[in-house]
């Protein structure tokens, strides 16, 4: 398996900024946006300026040489942008009308930048929505219109120590909530782990750990139009009570772990299991575990079967002010081809957003990768609304209060709804 650490997209994003796009007509923005014109026939031409972050930004320049070979009149210029400054750089570029032609966009930023009028709608016929994992495509849709194409994805699954599980009497992973709770208890009482299941007790990004339980229980975050938040529901409260019961029962540590503590603790048997994404396969092995000493499994459903996980990653979007939108969309289209997606996985380790890319090579044969591919078939992204980052920060804080025992699930969810209503969806 490719052990390249996979980029985290949008996990440490700054709170969203309010800004007005200068020099834009009244019909721009997510509501009432005119559809992009179809791309032309023939090869791409001209200069295509691209912004990309993290490892993608470092590797993409060399990777697109094949695109340039196939389109000899086109030149792709890639600028690597640090993730920590990417949000502000993109928002400033949109406001000034001086962005690149195409950029990697963190999935949780799509609503904000589309509503600001900075992104072009995806041309009809450019790609087929059904070629992508549903949750990934969902991240591109703002007010019912797609403003980009999913590039790569990540999702969360259950990591567990197989040796401790065997000692505890488990020869396979749990497949429902009751069994997950018993699994965690048995890993402690019989397997020797100090904590059966590590969950995030609040702090930044804890919504990504909690919401999969809520989605599995049937909760929604907004109405279908994305105009109102629907957080205050019995399903959200029930899921939060279940989530925080792991802290109440001493099955999960009630403080935020230090960097590296989870990986070393998992290798040492302090933590019997945890929920995380594909980047952790390399990290736990770097901490000393052999691939045979742990396994990954889909998140369990509430009653039986696979539960719903979180899907994140990165989308490719073309800027409204692009000087070469035709070339930009043709590059996006090329990066969406299954064989190109698989080649990029081989180069960088990013999991493909296009489902057909998983049908051959290592992605189709590696047991761990197959679990992530299976989980991606049932994974959701948060609503692509401009204010999501602000609402997510409220959820993080209230999950922390509930994990400490200061709020019930019902009271925490009511406060989440109150905060979200005050903020609004921005649509």
TrEMBL record:
Coiled coil: none annotated. Residues 415-427 have a biased composition (Polar residues). Keywords: Signal, Transport. Residues 406-427 are annotated as: Disordered. The keyword Membrane does not apply. Residues 1-20 form the signal peptide. PANTHER family: MALTOSE-BINDING PERIPLASMIC PROTEIN (PTHR30061), MALTOSE_MALTODEXTRIN-BINDING PERIPLASMIC PROTEIN (PTHR30061:SF50). Belongs to the bacterial solute-binding protein 1 family. This is Extracellular solute-binding protein. It comes from Nocardioides endophyticus.
